[in-house]
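hiii so um. not sure if this is the right channel but i have a protein structure encoded as tokens and i wanna go backwards to a sequence. like what aa goes where. can anyone help
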């Protein structure tokens, strides 16, 4: 008998009867898909370093975005938040027909919680983001290139991410793990009010630790999705 090879990726995806056209719809959809993939990851027993979001648009073209964490982990909070951060705005790329979440870079050696390592610096903690084929919009009238998904900071509004850029303006959605879905603001592309920030600043590590201590180890049941698989 030939033993089954270990999966290189664990994933879940769903095809929608009606195309998703808003960030709110994508956020709602990705939570259940990511949770189902996470349940499979826990059954596998390994941690994941790379989180991949796959989107198929209504024209059947496919966009894949991924982020690599500094350590393999099974921490649902970290994995889910990065997956949400990888979502592009349908207003920028078009209606979404299919959405998938995959975990790869699987390893038996894992960091159970990124919060435990107090020595992490921004340089080592920041996830490395990659987009294929890429939805990069040059910032007009300025040498800066704002990319969809870039993390930024505002002195009054706090942490946010670039939702869209072009035609001389940049739109930023200000939200973190603790704040939940936030509001979007549009600035001139050459504004000095926003600056680059670390992706992991959005995770609100201290607040999340407190939440975990209250919630304990209570789990949630896995939702149903159309297609799941280990590869």
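sure thing!! here u go:
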């Amino acid at each position: 008998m030939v033993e089954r090879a270990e999966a290189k990726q664990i994933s879940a995806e769903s095809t929608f009867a009606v195309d998703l056209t808003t960030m709110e719809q994508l956020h709602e959809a990705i939570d259940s898909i990511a949770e189902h993939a996470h349940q499979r990851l826990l059954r596998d027993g390994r941690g994941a370093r790379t989180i991949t979001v796959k989107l198929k648009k209504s024209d059947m073209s496919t966009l894949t975005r991924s982020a690599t964490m500094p350590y393999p982990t099974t921490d649902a909070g970290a994995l889910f938040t990065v997956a949400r951060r990888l979502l592009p705005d349908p207003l920028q790329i078009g209606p979404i027909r299919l959405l998938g979440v995959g975990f790869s870079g699987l390893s038996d050696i894992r960091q159970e919680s990124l919060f435990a390592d107090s020595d992490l610096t921004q340089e080592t903690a920041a996830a490395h983001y990659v987009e294929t084929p890429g939805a990069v919009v040059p910032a007009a009238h300025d040498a800066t290139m704002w990319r969809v998904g870039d993390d930024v900071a505002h002195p009054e509004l706090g942490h946010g991410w670039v939702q869209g850029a072009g035609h001389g303006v940049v739109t930023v959605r200000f939200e973190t793990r603790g704040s939940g879905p936030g509001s979007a603001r549009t600035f001139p592309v050459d504004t000095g009010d926003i600056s680059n920030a670390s992706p992991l600043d959005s995770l609100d590590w201290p607040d999340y630790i407190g939440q975990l201590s209250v919630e304990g180890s209570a789990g949630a049941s896995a939702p149903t999705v159309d297609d799941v698989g280990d590869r």
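oh and The chain is about 20% helix and 35% strand.
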